[in-house]
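Annex B. Sample input.
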Amino acid sequence: MKDILKKTVIVFLMIFGFTLSSTAQVKKKADKATEEWRYEIDAVQTGTQGNYLIKVWSYSKKPEVAIDQAKKNAVHGIIFKGFTGTQSVPGQKPLTNNVNLEVEKEDFFKPFFADGGKYMKFVSMSTDGAVAAEDRMKVGKEYKIGVIVSVNVANLRKDLEEAGIIKSLGAGFN
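Annex B, continued. Sample output.
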């Protein structure tokens, strides 16, 4: 009886260890994809005041990784890239035009964009993570996944201003 119990525990521990290992590998791939900041942003519609409703196109060899990174990419894009508009939705400039800001303020941005970091306070998925068939494309060996998200730009700007990362609107453009 003890042998069966020992073998069961060993098998359970092996399965648990394998699960942790594979989860860690997916996380590493997600972190690498984030560090490369490969994404595109399209205007979707005008959100409530202080919010942008945008579609973020993220790239990864695994669709799940691209979906997971969409929120991070959206906030990064609002801060550093901005997006062009359409006939019905105006484009937006980035919150900063300092191309070196992310490197200069690395002590702030590294934890800010870490998994579960502060960026999560300013973004939500408007489709609960569901991806329409036309928003999932195979491009070479990887996927291009489009996810619609809402970014609370007013609160994001306020937080970055209070942290001294960007200048307030009244102080001129950063």
